C-alpha cells in the first residue's frame, strides 16, 4: 500500500484503543472547493508549494472552500457492523473515500488495522473485450489480491458469481446483472478485515442479494468489520450494530440504530408546507384557481399526522373559470428522497370513474382508505390533470405523512396496503 | 500484500501531508517498493491495454507492424522524389532517418506514458486505492513493447539498405535509459499539471512537437545555418536521441561528454520529479472529482 506506516499501539490518539479496534478516526476533516476554476488554481498553488518543498498547511478555509467532513471521530471494532446514514451531500461518499485511502484527510488521522476492501464501485477496471476469466485476474490485481490468492479462490469466485458457461466469453456479452455479480464476487473473496459497502447491495436479482447477505454474515462471524452506507433504513436497521448520522459533514449521532434513524428523519430537510400556503407549494393553472386544500386528519407542523389503518381525506376547493372535462386525479405515496420508491399509486381512471368540473366554484374530495404506514415519514403526491394529461391543473408534491403510533421502520416502510381513491366533484354528476 | 490478512494487524495510517514528511531517499524507496509489490497489477493492466485493444480487429496484433512500415514507406518516398536535401549522413538517408525518428518516437513515447499516468487510470483512481506509480510503469512497458517491434522492423530495413548494425547495439538498453528519465521527468509533472491546468500540458505538447525539428534526427548535424547549429548544440535531446541512433548505425555515441552530462541531468530531474509526483499526486487527484 502507498501509505503504509507502522505505528505502535497505544500512541496519543489511539491510547484507549483496545486490540479489537480495526478502524479509528480522530478529528478527521476534509475540505473541497465548490468553484471549478478556483479549485484548479488552488491545485496549481499546492503543486508549486510542493515543488519548492513547502508543506501545504490545511488548517483554514480559502475562498469558496467548505468542509465536506468536519471533525469526524469514531471507532470500529472487529466483527462490528456500522451504518453511515445521511442525506445526499452529507459527506458519506467522501468519508468512504477517505477510509479507502483514495483521498487524504486535511486534518486529523485515520488508522486502519488490516486489509480494507471497498465495494464502492464493483468491477473496477473490467475490460469489455476480455473474458470473464481474464477479468477476474485483472480486477483481483486491482483490488490488491496476489496471483496465488486469486488462484486459490478462483473456483469460489466463479461459483458465487454463477456466470456458468460465460466464463470464457468476453464481458461485453454479459448482462449487466452478471457483470455486477462477477465484480461483487471478486471483491467479497479478497480476504479483508474491513469491508466498505456503498449501496451496492441494492443490485443484482433477489437470489443473488440473498447470497450476498449470507456471505457478508459469514464473514462478520469470522470477525470482519463492515461499514454500510445505505438509504435503505430497513437494511441499516437489520444489519448494523451502530450508526453514525452525518449532516453537512458533521456527526449528528453516533450510537443506537433506532435513535440514529429517528435523527436522520428529522434532519432530512423536507419542505414542510403549511395548510393555507397553497400558492407556494402547489403548481396550478390560470383557469383553475385553487382556494384551499384541507386534510383530514389535519396537518400539524406541516405534516399530516394519522393513526394507523385510518382514512386520509384531501379536500380541494377551487374556482374554475372555464369547464374542465375528463379530470384525472393521480395520487402516489412514496418513500422520501434520496431513495424515492412508490408504495402505491392510483388514479380515478383505474376505477373507471369519469370526472368533470363545471365552470364556477366547487370542491374535489379525494379519499384514500385504510392507510397503514410506518412512522419514518412517507410523502404524498397529488396531481390533477385534464383530458388524458394534456394539462396539469394541480401538482402538490412532498406532503409528509407520519403515523406516530406505528414503528419507525418496517420493511421498505409500509405494511398492509388497502386503499381507494374516491374523488368527487361537487356540483356535477359524473 | 499477502501479509495484511485478517489475522495479522498491519496498521495503515492516513494523515495530512503524510508523504511530505518522508525524506527524499525514503520516498524513492517507498515508490520502488510499491512498484515491486504491484508487479502483478502492472502485468494485468499491461495485458488489458496492450492486447485487448487488438481483440476486435481481424488482423489483430499484426497492426503493430503496420505503423513502422508505413513510416519507412513515407521516408523512402520523400527521399526518392528528392524533396529532402538532408546532407551527407554516410549511410542511405531513409535508413538514417528511420532509426533517428524511432529513437525520437521512443522519447515521446516515454513522455506520453508518464503524462498519461494519472489520466489513464482516471476512472480507477476515484474508485480503488492502489499505487498510482504502477501506472507509469505499465504505460512505459507498453511503449517499450511497441518500440521493440519497431526496432525489429528497423533492423530489417537497415540490412535491406546494406547497413550492418554495430554489435554495440547490445548497449542500447543502457543508452535509452536517459531518454526514459527525461521523458518521465517531464511527463510526470505534466500528468499532474494537466489535471489542474490543461493549458500548460498543451504548451509542452506543442514545444515537443517542434523540438523534433531542433534535433538532428531528420537531417544531419552538418548544416550551414549557424543559429540552427547553436540550437542543436544546446539541445540536450541532440545528445540523448542521437546517441541512441548512432550506437546502432555507427557503433559510437553522438558525443560522449555531452551524452554523459545530459544523462546525469536527466537522472537527477527524474528523481526530483518522481518525488514531487509522490508528494503531490494525492492532493491533485482530489481535483479530478
Supply database-style keywords:
heterodimer; A: 430 residues; alpha+beta; Rossmann fold; Coagulation Factor XIII, Chain A, domain 1; 2 domains; seven-stranded mixed β-sheet; six-stranded mixed β-sheet; 23% helix; 33% strand; globular; disordered N terminus; B: 289 residues; mainly alpha; 11 helices; 1% strand
Q: Helix segment count of chain A? A: 9
Uncertain spans of chain B, ≥5 residues at pLDDT below 50?
1-7
- Could you say what the CATH topology of the largest domain in chain A is called? Rossmann fold
Average pLDDT of chain B, rounded to a whole number, is 83
Tell the overall outline of chain B.
globular
* CA(first)-CA(last) distance of chain B: 28 Å
In short:
The complex is a heterodimer of chains A (430) and B (289). Chain A has 430 residues and is of the alpha+beta class.
Structural overview:
The complex is a heterodimer of chains A (430) and B (289). Chain A has 430 residues and is α+β, with helices and mostly antiparallel strands. Chain A has two domains: 171 residues, 3-Layer(aba) Sandwich (Rossmann fold); 148 residues, Coagulation Factor XIII, Chain A, domain 1. Helix content of chain A is 23%, strand content 33%. Chain A has nine helices and 20 strands. The radius of gyration of chain A is 27 Å and the shape is globular. The termini of chain A are far apart. With 289 residues, chain B is mainly α. Chain B has one domain. In chain B, 66% of the residues lie in helices and 1% in strands. Chain B contains eleven helices and one strand; from the N terminus they run E-H-H-H-H-H-H-H-H-H-H-H. Chain B is globular. At the A-B interface, helix 1, strand 4, helix 3 and helix 4 of A face strand 1, helix 2, helix 5, helix 7 and helix 11 of B.
Helix and strand arrangement:
The complex is a heterodimer of chains A (430) and B (289).
Chain A (H helix, E strand, L loop, with lengths): L20 E13 L2 H16 L13 E13 L3 E5 L6 H8 L7 E7 L2 E4 L12 H11 L4 H15 L14 H14 L4 E5 L7 H16 L3 E5 L3 H7 L2 E6 L2 E6 L1 H10 L11 H4 E2 L4 E9 L2 E2 L2 E3 L4 E11 L6 E8 L7 E6 L12 E12 L6 E9 L4 E12 L21 E2 L5
Parallel strand pairs in A: 3-7, 3-8, 5-6, 6-7, 13-19
Antiparallel strand pairs in A: 1-2, 1-4, 8-9, 10-19, 11-14, 12-13, 14-17, 15-16, 15-18, 17-20, 18-19
Chain B lengths: L10 E4 L9 H14 L1 H13 L11 H18 L12 H23 L6 H4 L7 H28 L11 H25 L1 H14 L14 H9 L1 H14 L6 H30 L4
Helix pairs in contact in B: 1-11, 2-6, 3-4, 3-6, 4-6, 4-7, 4-10, 7-8, 7-10, 7-11, 10-11
Amino acid at each position: 500500500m502507498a501509505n503504509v506506516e507502522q505505528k505502535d499501539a497505544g500512541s496519543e490518539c489511539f491510547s484507549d484503543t483496545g486490540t479489537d479496534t480495526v478502524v479509528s478516526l480522530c478529528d478527521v476533516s476534509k475540505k473541497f472547493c465548490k468553484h471549478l476554476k478556483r479549485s484548479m488554481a488552488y491545485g496549481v498553488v499546492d503543486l508549486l508549494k510542493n515543488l519548492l518543498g513547502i508543506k501545504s498547511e490545511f488548517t483554514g478555509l480559502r475562498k469558496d472552500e467548505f468542509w465536506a467532513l468536519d471533525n469526524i471521530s469514531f471507532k470500529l471494532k472487529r466483527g462490528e457492523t456500522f451504518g453511515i446514514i445521511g442525506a445526499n451531500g452529507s459527506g458519506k461518499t467522501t468519508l468512504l473515500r477517505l477510509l479507502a485511502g483514495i483521498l487524504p484527510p486535511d486534518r486529523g488521522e485515520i488508522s486502519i488495522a488490516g486489509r480494507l476492501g471497498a465495494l464502492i464501485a464493483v468491477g473496477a477496471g473490467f475490460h469489455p473485450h476480455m473474458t470473464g476469466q481474464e477479468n477476474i485476474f485483472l480486477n483481483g490485481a486491482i483490488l490488491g489480491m496476489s496471483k496465488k490468492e486469486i488462484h486459490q479462490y478462483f473456483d469460489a469466485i466463479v461459483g458465487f458469481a454463477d456466470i456458468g458457461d460465460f466464463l470464457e466469453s468476453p464481458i461485453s456479452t454479459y448482462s449487466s446483472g452478471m457483470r455486477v455479480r462477477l465484480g461483487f464476487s471478486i471483491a467479497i473473496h479478497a480476504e479483508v478485515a474491513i469491508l466498505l459497502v456503498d449501496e451496492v447491495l441494492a443490485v443484482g436479482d433477489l437470489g443473488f442479494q440473498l447470497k450476498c447477505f449470507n456471505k457478508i454474515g459469514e464473514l462478520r462471524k469470522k470477525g470482519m468489520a463492515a461499514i454500510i452506507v445505505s438509504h435503505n433504513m430497513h437494511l441499516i436497521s437489520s444489519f448494523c450494530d451502530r450508526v453514525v448520522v452525518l449532516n453537512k459533514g458533521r456527526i449528528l449521532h453516533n450510537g443506537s440504530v433506532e435513535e440514529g434513524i429517528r435523527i436522520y428523519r428529522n434532519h432530512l430537510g423536507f419542505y414542510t408546507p403549511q395548510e393555507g400556503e397553497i400558492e407556494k407549494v402547489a403548481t396550478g393553472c390560470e383557469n383553475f384557481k385553487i382556494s384551499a386544500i384541507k386534510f383530514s386528519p389535519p396537518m400539524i407542523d406541516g405534516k399530516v399526522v394519522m393513526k394507523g389503518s385510518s382514512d386520509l381525506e384531501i379536500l380541494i376547493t377551487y374556482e374554475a373559470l372555464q369547464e374542465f372535462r375528463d379530470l384525472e386525479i393521480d395520487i402516489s405515496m412514496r418513500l422520501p428522497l434520496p431513495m424515492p420508491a412508490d408504495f402505491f399509486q392510483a388514479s380515478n381512471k383505474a376505477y373507471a370513474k369519469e370526472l368533470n368540473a363545471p365552470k364556477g366554484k366547487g370542491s374535489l374530495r379525494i379519499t384514500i382508505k385504510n392507510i397503514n404506514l410506518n412512522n419514518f415519514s412517507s410523502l404524498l403526491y397529488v396531481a390533477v390533470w385534464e383530458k388524458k394529461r394534456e394539462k396539469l391543473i394541480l401538482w402538490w408534491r412532498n406532503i409528509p405523512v407520519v403515523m406516530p403510533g406505528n414503528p419507525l421502520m418496517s420493511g421498505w416502510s409500509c405494511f398492509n396496503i388497502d386503499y381507494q381513491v374516491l374523488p368527487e366533484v361537487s356540483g356535477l354528476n359524473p | 500484500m499477502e501479509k495484511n490478512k485478517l489475522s495479522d494487524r498491519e496498521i495503515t495510517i492516513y494523515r495530512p501531508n503524510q508523504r511530505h514528511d518522508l525524506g527524499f531517499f525514503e520516498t524513492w524507496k517507498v515508490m520502488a517498493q510499491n512498484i515491486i509489490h504491484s508487479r502483478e497489477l502492472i502485468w494485468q493492466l499491461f495485458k488489458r491495454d496492450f492486447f485487448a485493444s487488438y481483440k476486435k480487429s481481424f488482423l489483430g496484433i499484426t497492426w503493430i507492424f503496420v505503423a513502422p512500415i508505413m513510416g519507412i514507406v513515407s521516408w523512402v518516398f520523400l527521399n526518392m522524389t528528392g524533396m529532402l536535401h538532408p546532407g551527407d549522413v554516410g549511410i542511405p538517408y531513409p535508413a538514417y532517418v528511420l532509426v533517428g525518428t524511432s529513437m525520437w518516437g521512443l522519447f515521446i513515447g516515454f513522455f506520453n506514458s508518464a503524462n498519461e499516468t494519472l489520466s489513464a487510470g482516471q476512472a480507477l483512481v476515484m474508485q480503488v486505492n492502489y499505487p498510482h506509480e504502477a501506472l507509469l510503469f505499465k504505460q512505459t512497458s507498453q511503449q517499450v513493447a511497441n518500440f521493440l517491434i519497431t526496432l525489429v522492423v528497423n533492423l530489417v530495413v537497415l540490412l535491406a539498405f546494406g547497413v550492418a548494425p554495430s554489435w554495440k547495439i547490445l548497449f542500447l538498453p543502457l543508452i535509452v535509459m536517459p531518454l526514459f528519465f527525461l521523458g518521465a521527468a517531464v511527463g510526470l509533472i505534466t500528468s499532474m499539471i494537466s489535471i489542474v491546468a490543461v493549458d500548460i500540458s498543451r504548451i509542452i505538447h506543442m514545444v515537443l512537437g517542434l523540438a523534433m525539428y531542433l534535433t538532428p534526427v531528420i537531417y544531419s548535424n552538418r548544416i550551414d545555418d549557424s543559429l540552427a547549429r547553436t540550437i542543436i548544440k544546446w539541445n540536450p535531446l541532440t545528445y540523448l536521441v542521437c546517441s541512441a541512433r548512432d550506437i546502432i548505425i555507427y557503433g559510437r555515441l553522438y558525443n560522449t561528454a555531452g551524452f554523459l552530462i545530459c544523462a546525469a541531468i536527466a537522472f537527477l530531474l527524474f528523481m526530483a520529479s518522481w518525488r514531487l509526483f509522490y508528494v503531490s499526486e494525492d492532493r491533485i487527484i482530489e481535483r479530478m472529482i
